[in-house]
Amino acid sequence: MASSIDPHSYTNSSHPFTTHISLSLFFDFPSTTIHSSALLTLSSPHTGILSLDTRSLSITSIVDPKTQSPIQFSLSSEIDPIKGALLTVSLFNQSQLLISFKTSPNSSALQWLSPPQTFNKTLPFVYTQCQAIHARSIFPCQDTPAARIKYSAKINIPRLLAAVMSARHVERHAPVAGEAAMACDDSMWCAEDRVVEEFVMEQPIPPYLFAFAVGEISHREVGPRTRVYAETVPAILDAAAIEFAGTEDMIRQGEKLFGPYDWERFDLLVLPPSFPYGGMENPRMVFLTPTVIKGDSSGAQVVAHELAHSWTGNLITNKNNEHFWLNEGFTTYAERRIVEVVQGEERAALNIGIGWKGLNDEMERFKDNMEFTKLKTQQEGVDPDDVYSQVPYEKGFQFLWRIERQIGRPAFDEFVKKYITTFKFQSIDTETFLDFLKTNVPGIEKAIDLELWTEGTGIPPDAMEPVSTIYTKIVSLAHEFKNGRMPREDEVADWGGQEWELYLENLPKAIEASQISALNERYQLAESKDHEVKVAFLQLAISCGCRDYYGEVEKTLKEVGRMKYLRPLYTYLVQGPGKEEEKILAKRVFAEARDCYHPIAQGVVEAILSKHS
Ligand code: BES
Ligand code: ZN
């Protein structure tokens, strides 16, 4: 009987899990494909069918690596729009299989940038984004976080390029015959202009943490276990090195709060502007959008978040995406504890306030789909990219903060440390967390309605807005805007990007276009170099029907591919009545910008436009 442990995967829990994958990857930039082979090792010999996830892969052959004899397989012709194509393999008392296959140019995890799309414009670039369910578009696997894998990889690339991975770099060497392991012919693998970069990942990770980037990449040292990597552009590397100089300090704070840092290195990779997220917690090497480099150390907050995942998310992982709050809620809590130490309580409170506003806004977004205001959600037939929201982050944060208030910080810190040591390198669900909580904090269920928090919709009554002087001041200034009062220069003199962001997000949604223009004349928000500020302003401008800034909206949509900006800008353009002109604009801009977006972002924008067409 097929028993599913993950609504987003074909993995059958009665089959043995893959414990190790050995990859040979030949990067073919002209055709934007990877000629690949994957040697899968199972936890035990298996007889019968083994189900694997794939998406847009073409499978060439599968053999037993010991005997080279073929293994029967079938790739389903029925393609599930969310899960992809099921690959079934028939095994007979076998624990290893060698699959040779090719990725497709539209692999959903990969963005291939042609030379003109890079900074230096001379060489191509490619990078991955596998969370939540895109690893299967790079190699066949049990693509569920319940199945943790170790891996090794031989990456064959043009000699002018370099490869990085979220794994330990072993060496860069000239290609050797036989290494291709059926990825391609030896003649192709060993061609003159090629080089092999070798990596190993010795700690078991969920497949969504698999990551690489290939391009013209260099680095700067910023700490004893940290380098920043980016495309070889001295200005970017230098700015990144300055922005992230405080990283080691944050790692130490993290270790104090959550226990030893278990991943050895903590490197940072700054990606091209099309990177679809602010940051991605790939182990040993976090991936970052270049928009976090603003020259004011505010990028440190995103680094604090991705660093915090080293404990919550990467050590303890959600069993499947229905329990995503265990990753993001815990990490948001942990991020703010680090921020509190390195940037102070006021800064942490401001972050909580921005999150509080974000959480309340999501209640409006999901008012017809309250399921996604729950912490634990039902995701059968749901694409995780479509329901990505602040809820797991901010409601998850609020839940943990509520427990902290109940038992006091010292006891809560103790609890978190024990939670991490107990479940590290495991993938767990909400019930496991709740059982652990009830065992270790006896009587907690009498003080806090745990079921309401984890299974209920909306924001529980015992959630809390932060108390802080700056936060309260900013929110009340924003409310005064209704009466036509704009903040004075002396009131905003020491505002940074986050203060402006909080202010703009709290402004009433229906203000006169003339007031928007007046605000911008005084404070030049539409032209802000800080995308958080700029996008918050543009969003407001669109929702107030102020068309003066559509040029700036278009420019922004073409410059960056971070979904945090694309989502609200496209949504505000097309949502609501009487938006004919805006819809035409949105469609035209998307048609022109589409090729510059990561495939995940392309899908998300398409979903927004089709919902409102
Ligand atoms: N793991 C997430 C990014 C993600 C989530 C990718 C779901 C794919 C699917 C990452 O840790 C994250 O939360 N990034 C935030 C950073 C912010 C909260 C500081 C982002 O990208 O905005
Ligand atoms: Zn996160």
- Shape from CA axes? globular
> Major beta sheet, specifics?
8 strands, mixed
Q: Measured on Cα atoms, how large is the radius of gyration?
A: 24 Å
Total number of helices: 21
Distinct compounds present? ligand BES, zinc ion
Helical amount:
25-40%
Structure at a glance:
This protein is of the alpha+beta class and 613 residues long. The chain is 38% helix and 22% strand. The structure holds ligand BES and zinc ion.
Which tags fit this structure?
single chain; 613 residues; alpha+beta; eight-stranded mixed β-sheet; five-stranded mixed β-sheet; 21 helices; 19 strands; 22% strand; globular; binds ligand BES; binds zinc ion
